[in-house]
Amino acid sequence: MANSKFKFSGTGVAIVTPFRYDDSIDFTALRNLVSFQVENKVDYIVVLGTTGESVTLSNDEKRAVVDTVLETVNGKVPVVVGIGGNNTQDIINKIKQYDFTGIDGILSVSPYYNKPTQNGLYEHYKAIASVSSLPIILYNIPGRTGTNMCADTTLRLAHDFKNIIAIKEASGNLGQIMEIIKGRPENFEVISGDDLLALPIVLLGGKGVISVVANAYPAQMSELIRLALAGKLEEARKIHYLLMAIINLLFVEGNPAGIKATLEIKKLTTAHVRLPLVKVSDNTYAKIAEQVKILDRV
Looking at residue 183, which CATH number applies to its domain? Predict the structure, then answer.
């Protein structure tokens, strides 16, 4: 069955882009972080997503980040690259010109700011699907884009285009997510875009998560999803509740400021983010540090 061979099943990590305090990219930290993910058995890497601060990177920086990730992964796990935005023609042009060597899929966020209708969302993704040689993962995150992609629109795209193979659902609406899982074609999967909802979404029939917390805790998040997919619910629940406090803290002052604070505490990179984002407050930093101590003792 197609579902059993789904390439992006399990835990994908939405990898951060490490920065030095002078705002430059720390490629050594990026290589170390990617190696840390692979060693701790994440199933795939997602680069240039929201967590990677892709909107603050130049085109040259984006290419350098992708190349560094591909070189470090060296074929050990699939790599997905974020190519999305609110200018449909610009995305089409990028896809046509892009060197996808070594890349396994595209994550494409729904258009933000323009606030298209549901038909506009459909036509946007239809245009992208018509030029993409790679499988596409839709990305619905209305809290950032200002527009929710309804279940009917997602299902229409899933049924109409074979290269649209999944959705990263970050609406937080379990009713909507269940409608998609219930009505999806066999070759289409639902991936949680929310760490805290990853376990319930898998139990409802989802295929895994594209995770933020996995940047710092790849082994734990990967094991949680593996257990859930295997139906070992009691063991999966234990990890879910173990991670719950830190997952909540990661988003108190926005993503990726929270996860970068966590990574700094764990000495994996700095907490630096590019403007208009800023570091978390001292109070939140201290709370995250306390949770890191607790988790590192387990």
Answer: 3.20.20.70
